[in-house]
Description:
The chain is mainly α. Helix content is about 55%, strand content about 5%. It contains six helices and two strands, in the order H-H-H-H-H-E-E-H. Strands 1-2 form a two-stranded antiparallel sheet. The two termini are about 30 Å apart.
Amino acid sequence: MITPEYCRLMARYNAWQNRQLARLLRDVPLDDLKADQGAFFGSILGTLNHVLWADRMWMSRFDAGFAKPEGGIRESVDLCPTLGVWDAERFAMDGSIAAWADRLGAIRLSGDLSWHSAASGRDQSKPLALCVVHMFNHQTHHRGQVHAMMTRAGLEAPVTDLFLMPEDDT
């Protein structure tokens, strides 16, 4: 289904997108970042927090070295109280995802992942590759919501096209 190279590419893309968001949102007042925009997770910061929380949850399932985040989906919007805290936590998480992807082998991707899903209220078992694709897709989906909220608020939004990602995006 996917390869370790795909995972490394998507980890780079994820980090590039998050760095753009941090830069573009840096000077936006906290009240504006927390303002309810009518999105599923309410605000720009709430949505960014949810994605960070979900990444922690998925990575705790993919690799025993990652700690499971506190709380559930509803509490995820309050993970980081400010953009500065989010930015620092996000930077660390993106580095961890990239390091995990660098260690990932094709054989591991061919196996299954079993876990208890609080969202579905039952045990799940799915191909790991499917779950990894889901994590990266989930990030992109919710960043798209942030993009829409930024556009609606008259803010500059990030470039999101994968083919426009710089080769040297460090």
